[in-house]
Structure formats: C-alpha cells, structure tokens
Amino acid sequence: MIIIVGGANMHYESLTELPKEYKEGIDQCEYLLLQREIPNEINLLAAKYAKEKGKTVMLDCGGRDEPFPEGLFNYIDILSPNETEALRVLETTDESKVNIENIRETVMKKYPQMKVLLKLGSHGCHMIGKDFDLKVPTVNNFNDQILKDHPIVNTTGAGDCFTANFIVKYAELSKQDISEKERCERSMLFANTCAYICITRQGAMPSMPTMTEAQDFIKKYLSDKKI
After folding, report:
1. Which of 134, 162, 180, 221 is the most exposed, fewest CB within 10 Å of its CB?
2. Could you confirm whether 77 is annotated as catalytic?
C-alpha cells in the first residue's frame, strides 16, 4: 500500500495561475514530465503553458486516485499509466477493458497526438503509437544471469524510475536521425533497465540508479542490444 500525504506538494497560493518560477523552468526545457502528486489544476496549467511554448509533455498517471481534469489530455504527448491507472484513463472499473484495442478506440481516437506508454510490471511495457505498437519485456528476459546476479528486493519506486528514464533517453535520442518507432523502443529498453536496477535495492530515492550504473549494467548484460 502507498499512502500519499500531500503536504507542501499540494499547497499553492493560487490554483488559477502557474507560478512564475514554473514558467521560467518550462521556458528553459524541451521536455516536461508531470505526475499526479500535485493539484490537478497545476498540472493542467503547466501542460497548457508547455504546449504553447512548443514543449513535449509527458504525464505519469501515478498519484491521486481521482478523475483526470477536463482538457488535460489535449496537452499531453505521452501518457504513462500502469494497469490500475489505466482504469481511470479509460473511465472504467472493468479490468478486461485494459487492452490495446480499447485504448486505441477510446483514448487515441479522441487524442490522436498522444502516445500511450503502458507499464506492465513484470511483463515489461507496451507503447501504443499512431502507427505502431511496441512491446518490450523486462531486461531479465534477455539474459538469465541478470536475475542470478541481481535478485529482486523491493519494487517501490520502479514506476517513477521507469517513466523518468524513458523521457531522459527519449530526449537524448532526439538528436539522432532515427525513426520515432526506434526512438521509442530504445527508450523503453533503457527505462526497463533502470527500473530493474531500482527493484534490486531497498527504498525509493536510494534505489534510483545513476547514469553510470545504468550504462555499466547495459555493457555487462545487454551489450547485444541497441539502447
């Protein structure tokens, strides 16, 4: 069970105007990653402002267990729920409806600019794009030695780790002349790598790998993969 105590994250002087320092930060970035442990109103304001400035906006659906604010998805380029959060995205309690066909029919037809990156836990991840579907398994499926050398200890923080490292790699690969499908697939594999390292350690923040640790892990166990 995860219990969220909002504290300072939920305290804003105004929910109708984006703080000046947020605007300055967005002005200086190319990618904005949002999550649902701050007020819905701030997420909506930030996403709208970022899109007006030509930024790429990604939303990690983890956090508040409540409906998404009206209009938010109009400003999202990449939406990343896990299977439980996908129920809220689809506005259903029927777990059988969390499938690729239904996501395409009910979400992507309405928001054609958006890609959906579904986190599947031990089954890896699945991205649904306008012109492609990509499924990438967890990294221990590529090399049996991984699980022997690095047994799973604690899954806390894995989703956050995955999403953050996806957008880091996605941004890095924007400088290369490759297709959007390849860019997404390589970013998914990198994110899976970092998330796997995360779950081999105790804690949340202490379990997050550094870039050097991720690169060393790839070199040792996944050298045959293009990441």
Report:
1. 180
2. no
Token pair, residue 131, equals 């012109």
From 65, 77, 131, 160, the catalytic residue: 160
C-alpha dihedral, 21 to 24 to 26 to 30, nearest 10° = -150
- DSSP letter string, 127-157: EE-SS-EEEE--GGGT-HHHHHHS-----TT
- pLDDT tens by residue, 24-44: 999 999 999 999 999 999 999
3-state secondary structure 159-190: HHHHHHHHHHHHHHHCCCCCCHHHHHHHHHHH
- What angle (nearest 5°) sits at the alpha carbon of residue 197, between those of residues 178 and 7? 100
| Beta-sheet strands, E only, within the chain | 31-36, 56-63, 78-80, 115-119, 125-128, 133-136
Q: Which residues of the chain have pLDDT under 70?
A: 1-4
pLDDT of residue 3: 64
Cα–Cα–Cα angle for 166, 20, 62, rounded to 5 degrees: 35
* Confidence (pTM): 0.94
Distance in angstroms (rounded) separating the CA atoms of residues 159 and 83: 11
63 within 8 A of 37, measured Cβ to Cβ: yes
